[in-house]
Amino acid sequence: MSKLFIYYSNTGNGDLVANRLEELGYDVRKVIPKKDLPKSFFFKVMTGGFLAGINAKAKLVNFDANIDGCEKIVIGSPVWNGRLSSPINKVLTLLDLKDKKVTFVLYAGSGEAKHAPKQIQKIVSDANIIFLKEPKKYSEEIKKLEDI
Ligand SMILES: Cc1cc2nc3c(=O)[nH]c(=O)nc-3n(C[C@H](O)[C@H](O)[C@H](O)COP(=O)(O)O)c2cc1C
Known about the structure:
Blueprint: E1 2-7, H1 13-23, E2 27-30, H2 41-53, E3 70-80, E4 83-84, H3 86-94, E5 101-108, H4 116-123, E6 128-133
The structure holds flavin mononucleotide (FMN).
């Protein structure tokens, strides 16, 4: 039985989570959207904020949704506009999370998310949620992953 981390990252905070979970014995699958956010900060925030606000589901490149035999699933998303990111919204339509132990790791500038917990609860009612404040800036935040 394996432990799996499925995540998206636009600016590298999620990659730090992936590195640590890999050290803790997780297999890692990074989600790649067909079209990522624009590079410029202004258009990035406008586009991502809008997409998250309408609960958009990004098209993905070759996503492997098979989680048979995985004992524990951790799903990582940046917080966009208080919500889950559009690549992770798509992932959640593809995974069969029934009877799985699921933890979400949400990384955000503020270390919190207004709407994401409700979105998660609709899909996995008993999911555990861990919030991290941008681990690229606050490296001690990574320690919260020891409790997973
Ligand atoms: C489109 C967009 C919207 C964001 N909205 C929020 C937000 O609502 N609250 C917050 O705390 N941080 C927000 N952020 C900051 C990111 O959540 C934060 O930088 C996160 O760590 C990024 O993860 P990544 O580097 O793995 O992509 C936003 C960033 C982007 C690009």
